[in-house]
C-alpha cells in the first residue's frame, strides 16, 4: 500500500460510543485511516448523559459539547451532520446517506445507539408527545414548559424521573405514570423505592404507580392522558420514558446478524469481519448495554482491533449504578433481588433518611442498595467483584470500611 493511500473508516453515528472509539483509535494509531463520520442529528458530538441538566437549566447546550467542529477538522475527519446513513451495500462496501452522499469503506463502525420505546397506544403520534433522547427533544420540552402547564411522564425509571424533575423546575405541574409498583425497579428494592417516592412527592411531583397508559387524547395536539384505572390527566406535553430499543434497522436491512441488537464477538466485530459495532446498538453474549462504563470498554477494545492490535477482548463485568435523581443519592450494585438461601442485612435511619441493604449468599456479599449516604458504595462493589469472604466482617459490614478490619479483604 502506498504512503498516500490510507484505508477508509466510515463511522455511522456521531454519538458518545462512536466518537469515544475514534478517540481511542487516534491515540493508538493516528493517521492510520481516512475517517468519515455520519450523524443523524444536526449537532456535533455531545454528552447525552447531560441532557437532564440542560432541561433543568443547570447547563447550556454549549456546555455539553464533547467535540466541537474544530476537533474533527484538526484530526482530518470528514463530518456529515444531519445526514443519517440510510443504506449499506456490503458487497460493494459503500454507505449511502439520506442526502445521497456515497462513501466507500474498508472498515465500517456502526454506533447507531438506541431510540425511545414509544408506548403503542392511541394518540402516541400526536404533536406534543416526545421521547427524551436528544437535544431536539429537550427543545420541544422547553417550548412546552413555556407555553403549557401540565406534563405527564410515562416511565418511572432514571430517565423519566430526570425528565420530570427538569419540567418541574421549569414550572410545570408534572405527573409520573409508572407501570410497576415501585420506582427505579431495575436498580432499587421496594423499601428504597418507597423512600425515593416520598422524597420526590415532597418536592412537588405527582407519582402514580401500578397503572398503565390507555390512550393519549387530543385534537391535533395532545390534551390529556387516559389511564387504565379510568383517571384522565390533563397534558400539554407527554414524555415517553418507558425504556429504549437498540437502533438496528440499518444493520438488519444490510443483512447483518441481528437479534435484539447487532450481534458482535469479543472484538466487537459483527458476522461481517469488516463491520464493527459499539454501544447501545450492540448485543454481546446475549447482553445489551446502556451504561457508560461497559460502552467505554467496548470503545477501547474495538479501537485496538481497528488499529491492528488484536490482543484485546471485551469481557463483561459487573457494574455498579450510581444514580443522582433530583439531588437524591442512590447506589446499586450486584444482585439486589437475592434468592433461596440468601440473607439480607438492613440498616435504616429514619431521621437522616438513610437506608442500606446488603445481600449475602453464604459468606459472600452479592448485592448492595444504598439510599441517602452512598459513600461506601465503591467499597461494597469491590467486595462483590472480588468475591471476598466476609464472614469475619459480617457483624460490622453494614457500618462500612471504617469499622471493618481493612486487612480482612
Automatic annotation (TrEMBL):
Top-level division of the source organism's lineage = Bacteria
Q: Please provide, alphabetically and separated by semicolons, the GO molecular function terms listed in this UniProt record.
A: nitrite reductase (NADH) activity
In this chain the NADH-rubredoxin oxidoreductase C-terminal domain maps to 320-386
Q: Give all residue intervals belonging to the FAD/NAD(P)-binding domain.
A: 9-286
Q: Does the keyword NAD apply?
A: no
Spell out the InterPro entries in the cross-references. Answer: FAD-bd_OxRdtase, FAD/NAD-bd_sf, FAD/NAD-binding_dom, FAD/NAD-linked_Rdtase_dimer_sf, Rubredoxin_C
Q: Tell me its cofactors.
A: FAD
Give the enzyme's main class according to its UniProt record, as a single word: oxidoreductase
For this UniProt record, the keywords arranged alphabetically read as follows: FAD, Flavoprotein, Oxidoreductase
E.C. number: 1.7.1.15
Membership in a protein family: Belongs to the FAD-dependent oxidoreductase family.
- Name the record gives this protein: Nitrite reductase (NADH) large subunit
Q: To which species is this protein native?
A: Massilia aurea
Query: Which taxonomic lineage does the organism of this UniProt entry have?
Result: Bacteria, Pseudomonadati, Pseudomonadota, Betaproteobacteria, Burkholderiales
Amino acid at each position: 500500500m502506498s504512503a498516500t493511500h490510507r484505508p477508509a473508516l466510515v463511522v455511522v453515528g456521531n454519538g458518545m460510543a462512536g466518537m469515544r472509539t475514534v478517540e481511542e483509535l487516534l491515540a493508538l494509531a493516528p493517521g492510520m485511516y481516512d475517517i468519515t463520520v455520519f450523524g443523524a442529528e444536526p449537532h456535533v458530538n455531545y454528552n447525552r448523559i447531560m441532557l437532564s441538566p440542560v432541561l433543568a437549566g443547570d447547563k447550556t447546550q454549549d456546555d455539553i459539547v464533547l467535540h466541537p467542529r474544530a476537533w474533527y477538522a484538526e484530526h482530518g475527519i470528514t463530518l456529515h451532520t444531519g445526514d443519517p446513513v440510510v443504506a449499506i451495500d456490503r458487497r460493494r462496501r459503500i454507505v449511502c446517506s439520506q442526502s445521497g452522499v456515497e462513501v466507500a469503506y474498508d472498515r465500517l463502525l456502526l454506533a447507531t445507539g438506541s431510540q425511545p420505546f414509544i408506548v403503542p397506544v392511541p394518540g402516541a403520534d400526536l404533536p406534543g408527545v416526545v421521547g427524551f433522547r436528544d437535544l431536539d427533544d429537550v427543545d420541544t420540552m422547553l417550548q412546552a414548559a413555556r407555553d403549557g402547564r401540565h406534563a405527564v411522564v410515562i416511565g418511572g425509571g432514571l430517565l423519566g424521573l430526570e425528565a420530570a424533575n427538569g419540567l418541574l423546575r421549569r414550572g410545570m405541574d408534572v405527573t409520573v405514570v409508572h407501570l410497576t409498583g415501585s420506582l427505579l425497579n431495575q436498580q432499587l428494592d421496594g423499601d428504597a423505592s418507597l423512600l425515593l417516592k416520598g422524597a420526590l412527592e415532597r418536592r412537588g411531583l405527582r407519582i402514580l404507580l401500578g397503572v398503565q397508559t390507555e390512550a393519549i387524547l387530543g385534537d391535533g395536539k395532545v390534551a390529556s392522558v387516559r389511564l387504565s384505572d379510568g383517571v384522565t390527566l390533563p397534558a400539554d406535553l407527554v414524555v415517553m420514558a418507558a425504556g429504549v430499543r437498540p437502533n438496528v434497522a440499518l444493520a438488519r436491512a444490510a443483512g447483518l446478524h441481528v437479534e435484539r441488537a447487532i450481534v458482535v464477538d469479543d472484538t466487537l466485530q459483527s458476522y461481517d469481519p469488516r463491520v464493527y459495532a459499539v454501544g447501545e446498538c450492540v448485543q454481546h453474549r446475549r447482553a445489551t448495554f446502556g451504561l457508560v462504563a461497559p460502552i467505554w470498554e467496548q470503545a477501547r477494545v474495538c479501537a485496538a482491533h481497528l488499529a491492528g492490535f488484536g490482543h484485546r477482548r471485551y469481557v463483561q463485568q459487573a457494574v455498579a449504578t450510581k444514580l443522582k435523581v433530583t439531588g437524591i443519592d442512590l447506589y446499586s450494585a450486584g444482585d439486589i433481588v437475592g434468592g433461596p438461601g440468601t440473607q439480607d442485612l438492613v440498616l435504616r435511619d429514619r431521621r437522616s433518611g438513610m437506608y442500606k441493604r446488603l445481600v449475602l449468599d453464604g459468606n459472600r456479599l452479592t448485592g448492595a442498595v444504598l439510599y441517602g449516604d452512598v459513600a461506601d458504595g465503591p467499597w461494597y462493589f469491590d467486595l462483590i467483584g472480588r468475591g471476598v469472604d466476609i464472614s469475619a466482617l459480617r457483624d460490622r459490614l453494614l457500618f462500612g470500611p471504617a469499622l471493618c478490619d481493612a486487612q480482612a479483604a
